[in-house]
Design brief:
With about 260 residues, the chain is α/β, with parallel strands linked by helices. The chain has 7 helices and 10 strands. It is about 35% helix and about 25% strand. The strands form 2 sheets. Strands 6-7-8-3-9-10 form a 6-stranded mixed β-sheet, with helices on both faces. Strands 2-1-4-5 form a 4-stranded antiparallel β-sheet. Helix 2 packs across helix 3, helix 2 runs parallel beside helix 4 and helix 4 runs parallel beside helix 5. Bound molecules: adenosine-5'-triphosphate (ATP). Belongs to the ABC transporter superfamily.
Length: about 260
């Protein structure tokens, strides 16, 4: 079985009016089937660029991005994405919004099966009873829950989450971490999360990759040592504190504040 996502020696620069801006340099990342990888790094180091390359929205200058054994050269329906601001269509109900990818992506499901799948996901994230509401009738957190359902309803090979919880208040955000974790236990998928929140990365991921300052390379990889079934209380354990301290230190190195290597 090929590794679902692999970045091999990816190097990329943007062409700007003042010359090339090198963003990624010899970046190697491998994500195993069903794994959850979080990517953290200093602001502007190239995290969103990385998601655009994986989504096939652009190609790297050098190196390759592999998806399921093939080089990605254009956008794929097998890559799902969710962003900070969920773009739900106001003229559709929440259920119809969640069903949208099943109308676009080729599949053999009947209308009833599509609806069943969307309803089941909405129930999993606590939105049972809101299926017929319009997006504007829901809170920001509820809209993001619906958006998460929409991003996985067609069972993409890989889900890319680019700061999906960044715009939410702290309590809603933590609630959604738990929802995301529980959702993945029910509907396993391979996931890449871009985040600025170290606690979020540790709670959700199996591995956290720290990118260096620009041009970014994979500076450090932290295997998360929590058990598979997690709760928010895990974030207050000594193991969590140690992992967070390690990541904090690595970010400081990436920001150029210290040149020490982590113990
Ligand atoms: N289309 C573009 N053309 C030119 N420069 C770009 C383009 N897109 C991004 N950049 C620049 O490339 C660098 C990396 O951008 P990117 O958005 O990938 O970083 P990021 O790590 O996601 O940032 P942040 O942490 O602030 O969200 C930044 O300096 C940005 O200004």
């Amino acid at each position: 079985m090929p590794v679902p996502i692999e970045l091999r020696a990816v190097t990329h620069a943007y062409r700007t009016d003042s010359g090339p801006l090198p963003v990624l340099r010899d970046l190697n990342i491998k994500m195993a089937e069903g794994s959850f990888t979080a990517v953290v790094g200093p602001s502007g180091c190239g995290k969103s660029t990385l998601t655009r390359l994986i989504a096939g929205l652009m190609r790297p200058d050098e190196g390759q991005v592999w998806l399921g054994g093939e080089i990605i050269r254009s956008p794929r329906s097998t890559v799902g994405m969710a962003f900070q601001n969920p773009v739900l269509l106001e003229w559709r109900t929440i259920l119809q919004n969640v069903m949208l990818p099943l109308e676009i992506v080729k599949n053999s499901l009947s209308r009833a099966q599509r609806e069943d799948r969307a309803r089941a996901l909405l129930a999993l994230v606590g939105l049972e009873g809101f299926e017929d509401k319009r997006p504007s009738e829901l809170s920001g957190g509820m809209r993001q829950r619906a958006s998460l359902c929409r991003s996985i309803v067609h069972r993409p090979q890989v889900l890319i989450l680019d700061e999906p919880f960044g715009a939410l208040d702290a309590f809603t955000r933590e609630d959604l971490w738990q929802t995301m974790h529980d959702l993945r236990a029910e509907e396993p998928f391979t996931c890449l999360l871009i985040t600025h929140d170290l606690r979020e990365s540790v709670f959700l991921a199996d591995d956290v990759v720290v990118l260096s300052g620009r041009p970014a390379t994979a500076q450090y990889r932290l295997p998360v040592t929590f058990q598979d079934k997690r709760s928010l209380n895990d974030l207050y354990t000594p193991a969590a504190v140690e992992m967070l301290a390690t990541l904090r230190h690595q970010i400081e190195i990436a920001q150029g504040r210290t040149t020490e290597t982590a113990a």
